[in-house]
Amino acid sequence: MITWLKNLFFGAEEPKPTLKTYTPPVVEEPKVAKKPSAAKSKKESKPDLGKMTKPQLIEYAKKKGIKVNASLKKADILKSING
What we know:
Elements: H1 2-10, H2 54-64, H3 74-82
């Protein structure tokens, strides 16, 4: 009865809320067995430059150290790469 009176006049102590943090579920990547690669030659094969887009050709030229201008036509970039 004393607790009832305390609650009546002083208010019941409310339980302190606890913070629950969201922890996302752990998703494991499926393990894919690596296929044995075909016998690769030590020399890189030259990609088919004719099928590449202009931005791809510009990036390829930069990797090879060939200076090309983005304002050039695709044919001109191909000439610069091929020499």
